Amino acid sequence: MVFSSVLGGVIALGGYSLVGPGAAPAQSGQNDEASPVSFTNYVFDSADFVVPEGLNFVYAAKSATPAVVHIKTVYNATSGARNPMEDFFKDYFGEQYDRGERAPGRGAGSGVIVTADGYIATNNHVIDGASEIEVLLNDNRSFKAEVVGTDPDTDLALLKIDGEGLPKMNFGNSENIQIGEWVLAIGNPYEFTSTVTAGIVSAKARNIDILRRYGDQRNRYKIEAFIQTDAAVNPGNSGGALVNLNGELVGINTAIASPTGSFAGYSFAVPASLVEKVIFDLKDYGVVQRPLLGISIQDVDAALAEAEDLNVLKGVFVAGVVSNSAADDAGLEVSDVIVAIEGKAVNNVAELQEQVALNSPGDKIEVTFIRNGKTRTTGAVLKNAENSTERVIAQRSIEVEGLKVEPVSEAMKDQLDIDSGVQIKSLGNKKWAEANIKEGFIVTKIDRKPINSAEDLTASLESARGEGLLIEGIYPNGEKSYYGIGW
Fold first, then answer.
1. How far apart are CA 342 and CA 344, in angstroms?
2. SS3 50
3. Reported pTM
4. Percentage helix, strand, coil, to 5, in the chain?
5. How far apart are CA 1 and CA 300, in angstroms?
6. What is the DSSP letter of 409?
7. Predicted local confidence at residue 197, as pLDDT
8. Buried residues in 270-282 as b, exposed as e (16+ CB within 10 A)
9. Most buried in the list 2, 10, 35, 459, measured by CB within 10 Å?
């Protein structure tokens, strides 16, 4: 199964597989009459396929495959909880897709080991909302994985498993790859582990509008600058590797264009330059350091050039400038056309977003733009969403009375249908342990008062000192529990 939406044919969040009770099967040819995408039969004769001299698919596959993992996920068995991407199924299959009472759901995708001690890059949609994550290595070893951080704006996530000396994949320079260059896609389509397919780079900096339409609408800064290839990608490939012939990572396979939900010619990968920036931000800070220029933008085309009396047909038109933003401070104005960042040409919004996103708040970038027919250059000091240049650090585990607790993500709250809660990551309090409370328990209320933070928990425990506690909460599998503790 894949997540599907109509965009010409279908853009499917790439190669993700979800299995659950009541899930409708993908039907080949569905929406054929309405879709402008036509099918073309192709018979492949292996005798016609000759690897050009100097290129070695075998070397690239052999060196990269050990670092690609199979990710299996489990979703809660509750009536209120659902996989956050379930709307994809209703969109594609209609209202007949109704799981009703949710039994446990299962999902599958791929990931890439990027450090020898077990950090793994994958797509956010592969693990979003999962209550359990299992990682299977190429050598058949199995690990439980923890989510280090997620970034829905780029559909990337970082996982961690406990390991040493693991096979890792080196990053290649995705900015230097050329259209027409050979690449390999490595992943686990249809649960066929360690599958390798080959193709060429078909285009760069593609915006297919999939994250805005089907992502978390609370996130406003969607970044799509996909590498488009014709390497075959299918359900289960999401989060897997796109590699060059040196066996280096140049992208994370994410989406496919298809009228059926299966590969029909084109796949899309997040470029490795952006992947590296995002996942190491997640590793170091727990959150992405998102840089912003502070402008409203749109692609320049012939119609816009005529309407605005522009003398260029490519670039990014500045439709608005946020007061006191990086762009405002740098002197950019409405009707300017940005044509380069740091000397690199930007022909459209996707290319501009990618080049800006590779930086961090506080970085100064050179912006080349055209105003009244003249080319100019200015320096812009990038800011974050709070309009400052400060680094943001995600809240880590906090110890309260021997309990290590963390905030509960909004996605987890939505999934479990709760409005409050802190999650217990480790139990170092004897009374709580003797009450048979388990790690992972989410404390939603104490003495009927909502608990939204470690501070709330501390205050409730202090006020109840010498008395009894009524602890209410829920486990990630949806099981609600109540505990009484003498305090």
1. 6
2. coil
3. 0.71
4. 20, 35, 50
5. 37
6. P
7. 96
8. bbbbbbbbbbbbb
9. 2
DSSP 188: -
* Cα 457 → chain centroid: 31
- Give the per-residue pLDDT at 134: 96
Instruction: Give me the pLDDT at residue 213, please.
Output: 63
Joined together, the tokens standing for residue 363 give 């970085």
As annotated, the active-site residues are: 125, 155, 238
Q: How far is CA 20 from the centre of its chain?
A: 22
- Mean pLDDT of successive 10-residue stretches along the chain, which has 487 residues: 34 47 31 32 40 73 96 70 44 37 74 97 92 94 93 94 95 95 94 92 89 58 90 92 96 86 85 96 91 95 94 95 96 97 95 95 97 96 90 75 83 82 87 89 93 89 84 91 88
To the nearest 10 degrees (0 to 180), the angle between helices 349-357 and 272-285 is 40
Per the CB < 8 A criterion, the answer to whether 81 and 75 are in contact is: yes
CA pair distance 135, 276, nearest whole angstrom: 20
CA dist 192 and 95 (Å) reads 31
pLDDT at 307: 94
Residue 229: CA count within 13 A, CB half-sphere: 34
Name, in order, each residue with C-beta under 8 angstroms of 346's C-beta and a sequence gap of 6 or more: 315, 316, 338, 339, 340, 352, 355
Measured CA to CA, the distance from residue 338 to residue 345 in angstroms comes to: 9
User: Looking at 233-282, which runs of residues are DSSP E strands?
Assistant: 241-243, 249-257, 266-271
Contact predicate 85/18, CB 8 Å: yes
| Closest to 262 (Cα-Cα) out of 25, 19, 441, 23 | 25
Contacts of 428 (CB under 8 A, 6+ apart): 399, 402, 403, 404
Q: How far is CA 451 from the centre of its chain?
A: 29
